[in-house]
Amino acid sequence: MRQAINRLAEGGRIDRTERLSFRFDDEIMYGHPGDTLASALLANGVRLVGRSFKYHRPRGLMAAGGEESNGLVRLRQGGRAEPNVRATEIVLFDGLVAESQNRWPSLRFDLGALNDRLSPLFPAGFYYKTFMWPANLWPSYEAVIRRMAGLGKAAKSGDPDRYEKKYAHCDVLVVGAGPAGLAAALWAGRTGARVILADEGTELGGALLGNGQQIDGRPGTAWVAGIEAELAKAANVRLLPRTTVGGYYDHNALTLLERVADHLSKPDQGQPRQRLWQVRAKQVVLATGALERPMVLANNDRPGVMGAGAVQTYINRYGVRPGRRAVLFTNNDSAYRVALDLAQAGVEVPAIVDLRAQAPLGWRAELDRFGIEVMADRAVLGVAGRNAVTGVQIGKLNAAGNGVVPGLARRIECDLLCLSGGWTPSLHLLSQSGARLRWDGTPGCFLPGEAHQAVRVVGAANGDFMLQDCLTLGAGAGKSAANDAGHQHRGRGPRKPVAAVEADPTPPRPIWSIPGPGRDGRKSGGKAFVDFQSDVTAADLRLAAREGYHSIEHVKRYTTVGMGTDQGRTSNINALGIVADALDVAIPQVGHTTFRPPFSPVTFGALAGGQTGPLLDPARRTPMHGWHQANGAVFEPVGQWHRPYYYPKAGEDMAAAVNRETLAARTSLGLMDATTLGKIDIRGPDAAEFLNRIYINGWKSLAVGGCRYGLMLGEDGMVFDDGVTARLAEDHFHMTTTTGNAAHVHDWLENWLQTEWPDLAVYCTSCTEQWAVAALCGPNARRLMASLCPGFDLSAEAFPHMTWQTVAIPGVLEGLEARIFRIGFTGELSFEINVPAGHGLALWEALMAAGEKYGITPFGTEAMHVLRAEVGFIIVGQETDGTTTPDDLGMGRMVSSKKDFLGKRSLSRSDTMRQDRPQLVGLLTDDPGHRVPEGAQLIAGNNPAPPQRGLGHVTSSYHSPNLDRTFALALLQGGRGRHGETIHIAYDGRAVPAQVTAPRFLDPGEAAK
Amino acid sequence: MLLLQCPWCGDRSEEEFACGGEGDIVRPLVPEELDDRAWGDYVFMRRNEKGIHFERWRHAHGCGRWFNVARSTVTHEILASYQVGDDRPELPE
Ligand SMILES: [Zn+2]
Q1: pTM, whole model, 2 decimals?
Q2: Which of A442, A683, A703, A822 is most buried (most C-beta within 10 Å)?
Q3: Residue B54 CA, ligand 1 centroid: distance in Å
Q4: Which CATH number fits domain B3-83: 3.30.2270.10, 1.10.10.10, 3.40.640.10, 3.40.50.150?
Q5: CB within 8 Å: B58 and A751
Q6: Among all residues of chain A, which has the CA nearest to that of B68?
């Protein structure tokens, strides 16, 4: 079993008294509370943690935080398995199981590594260049690509965990709890402002946890503990550790992902795994820090090449030394402190290689004490070793930094190379907020430019790399943010923290790509990686530039640089520099790519929150729903409504059930739940005038007690809803709309009343759910009604078609009356009985009981569709598609010539007057048993081969037991003039001949009256 | 996620609202007198301003009222929020 050979005897923020066991691939190892998976692996001497994406090169850990590009693992198992988790962000827990990725069959022996040897075959733009032709081979290309590419495997079974969403408001949101963020939160919090402080890490403190810096004469971590204790006690401050602020949207709306239980083996009882916050902040302070860039040089991806700052964090925070003999290569001052920390931890440090001609002087005495040689004006040209670093080759660059001065090469053996290519402020969130970034050549990075929202940037994110600046400016930003949010300090603010004095920095020397050790400086000596996660090298970027990709956005897409889950955290600036050099322009001319949310990957679970399974979408059910269920209905979703589709009896398939229901309604008695129809109560002295403007037909002449069918158009003249509206009183109407369009129609009415015709005194109230509706139809409908409403005159003379009455139904509605409408949608004698929703089920059951002797048959939406199509009634959205006028449907005669109404003027535009517009027709296939699919195209000839000029399409198609054949409705160009002609219905490579007819197959006749 | 000011309900999140597109479009009083082009302009043609856009919003999941908003399409800054029927407010340069 492995021993923790790299664990230091003391130091770090880990608890050595407790052991946590974990498994990585097939090996069981131990770590301690306070470890991440990454620090525990390093402590156990594990160097190889994954294979790279494209070339399957062996890779080790390179970072200690969220910028890790190599150490991506599959964490946990079964439904909780999650791919592509950064080992540096996984808090170690007992029993943790993780697997390496991108390797087969094993991490040590990986067949895909052949890609590395074959790499001349995988240049930039490889996919675009290779898998182009012939197109019909694409499916087999895709299968190969899918197997080789992709990062990790997702879980196959359901996710057992629960996720939450939460909304919050605050005065000041501070992002990042390093020194600057803590100071900002403290100063803002002392004013009484509502403060949220969010940080990705498990512990507050940021860089102070790992860099050993001092504040107020004591360790920085002690200062952090003091601040944290105060903030934790403050009622107006909310601390959110393990929380990544991932999105910065308009008007200071930010999204936060809180990993509530990811540090546990599974969530505690009742605990969500993650919580997605949406926070609206009056002021935002970004203290998001900076990330260290690697150096781009030959074989800079070998396991054992790490960021200098990361190495420092492993030593100071985790008590782990990542190697035994370390060389540092830097272009700035920050590596010097790391060299000393390494030496103090017992790591041999033969040299610091510094690109600058003048190395900083302040460290001399301490470096000498440990015998660390400073090699100024030198560069590491390449790395030796394959599965682990074994040494580095060192040389001198020419003044331009693009070639090697011959004759000064030197090799140093080592197992650890620490790189510091300078620091990149993390400005992803600021950029998302709409702010501009400006290039500053002195530190060699982008810094915050003009902001568009109420946001301040402090600390390293603002290019303030000195600790004292982080503390002072952080405190100032916290105070002014609170002030701007309306809060002031009462009395004096907190005492100002003082950092240990730091020497003024020596300016860095940015060289974006170190020339290779070959004689002319061009011979590479190995791949020099820029983006480790996407496997993009400096040579790929130069090739893209040579091939004409000059926009950084194009270079990004062509080479995939910065397109991994890390969004190019460590690669963006190096890539920009290399492209700018290749194009011989300055970096600001190349610009930077757009940062888009989220900053870090977000699980689908968190995005869905509680809206899964039955809570995915609200379900609307009628009062009779339980009866439908108990009687075996199959349901169909119509908008959010669940409507009975058909009611199969034992042994019946859908076609048989629909046939039976359709026949019953025509021959005896059918009953349908029509509760879902949209209903709008329209009231006011101008109600009739209002309807006159909304509908194409006239409404002023409609008598109280009457009903009328109406069509509504958009201003473009196209039909958008239809329905029957009844006049309840002089100033009172009851409008019905199609089920799926009810809310839209209501919005439409309100739109006109509020914005265009505020002078009309009309009030609209949705009453869809206040009324339950049973639609009774068939030759026996009147007989049944008579038994239910004894003494009420139901004769056609007393209660004619297209009228309504209030009727008592004894035994069903005590003390209430039903509104009964003599209207229907089937062409049969019909009664639509409306009762207050709470009585819907009683009504339904009474109708079923009383109708038993007539064989009353409940029918669903499918039989209703067949019945209405037989008599040529349209359904808006089926016979219409937003380009259909009343005349196209054969309803041109309904259009009133006596008034204006919405959409009227559009009916006389040249296009709507065309004679060859698609018009509603019926279609009867030559083969009466052949049912064509809805949506099929109409063509003239019997040859279906493309290209074809489409003449229209089938809108409805059914089998009718009443006709004993199939039939269809269609929109056909100039269709009204083509009755009797034969056209063809094209689908599935066939052309089915059919005769064009009038769009009506049965006559409602006298029975309906 | 915009923060919109409903003139009746105050500051509310964008998800409570429905955008109704360009505002201040007046329906012609006598459409029959318009030629096809003029009517087509009213029905179909909309501004696509880079800069200040006057638009209508409805507090769909709140009070249900329509109101007008002046919004910068560049920064999404809301420069004004006012009731239907009110005149366009003076905007700062
Ligand atoms: Zn409102």
Answers
A1: 0.90
A2: A822
A3: 18
A4: 3.30.2270.10
A5: yes
A6: A755
Contact A904 B31 (CB under 8 A): yes
Question: Three-class SS string for A212-251?
Answer: CCEECCEEHHHHHHHHHHHHHHCCCEEEECCEEEEEEEHH
Task: Domain ranges for chain B, please list them.
Answer: 3-83
Burial class (CB in 10 A: 0-12, 13-18, 19+), A157: exposed
Binary contact (A909, B40; C-beta < 8 A): yes
Q: Is B38 near chain A, with CB under 8 Å?
A: no
Query: Chain B 5-34, CB below 8 Å of chain A: which residues?
Result: 13-14, 18, 20, 26-28, 30-32, 34
Q: What is the mean pLDDT of each run of 10 residues along chain A (1009 residues)?
A: 92 96 96 98 95 88 95 94 95 96 73 69 63 59 60 86 96 98 97 97 95 94 97 97 97 97 94 97 98 96 97 97 97 95 97 94 92 96 94 94 88 97 96 93 91 96 96 97 94 83 87 79 76 93 93 91 87 94 92 88 94 92 98 96 97 97 97 98 98 97 97 97 98 96 94 96 97 97 94 94 94 89 95 96 96 97 98 96 97 96 97 95 97 97 90 98 96 97 95 97 76
Q: What is the DSSP string of A18-76?
A: S-EEEEETTEEEEE-TT-BHHHHHHHTT----EE-TTT--EE----SSTT-SS-EEEES
Which SS3 state, helix, strand or coil, does residue A988 take? coil
Question: Looking at beta carbons, which residues of chain B come within 8 Å of A716?
Answer: 43-44
Question: In this complex, which of A250, A758, A904 lies closest to B76 when CB atoms are compared?
Answer: A250
Angle at A209 between CA A204 and CA A172, to 5 degrees: 30
What pLDDT, on a 0 to 100 scale, did the predictor assign at position A521?
44
Nearest chain B residue to A282 by CA: give it.
Answer: B3
Statement: A678-766 belongs to CATH 3.30.70.1400: yes
Contact indicator for A749, A764 with CB cutoff of 8 Å: yes
CATH topology of domain A294-421+505-527: FAD/NAD(P)-binding domain (3.50.50)
Residue range B53-72: mean pLDDT, rounded: 95
Residues of B in contact with A758 (CB under 8 A): 84-85
User: Which amino acid is residue A641, in one-letter code?
Assistant: W
Q: Give the single-character DSSP code of A270.
A: T
| Chain B 48-77, residues with CB within 8 Å of chain A CB atoms | 56, 58, 60, 64-66, 75-77
The CA distance from A723 to A712, in Å, is 9
Mutate which: B39, B44, B61, vs A, most A CBs within 10 A: B39
Nearest to A249 among B1, B60, B77 (CB): B1
The CATH fold of domain A163-290+425-484:
FAD/NAD(P)-binding domain (3.50.50)
Query: How is residue A6 written in tokens?
Result: 């790299």
DSSP A752: I
Query: CA-CA distance, A709 to A696, in Å (whole number)?
Result: 10
In tens, the pLDDT along A601-658 reads 999 999 999 999 989 999 999 999 999 999 999 999 999 999 999 999 999 999 999 9
Residue ranges covered by each domain of chain A? 1-160, 163-290+425-484, 294-421+505-527, 529-593, 678-766, 868-882+914-1008
| Interface pTM, i.e. ipTM | 0.97
Q: A746 in helix, strand or coil?
A: helix
Contact A755 B3 (CB under 8 A): no
Q: Domain A529-593 maps to which CATH number in 1.10.10, 1.10.1140, 2.50.20, 1.20.58?
A: 1.10.10
The per-residue pLDDT for range A471-495, each reduced to its tens digit, is: 999 999 999 999 999 999 877 778 8
> Closest-CA residue in chain A for B58?
A751
- Which residue in B13, B26, B84 is closest to A754 by CB distance? B84
Domains A163-290+425-484 and A868-882+914-1008 agree in fold: no
Output the CA A753–ligand 1 centroid distance in Å: 16
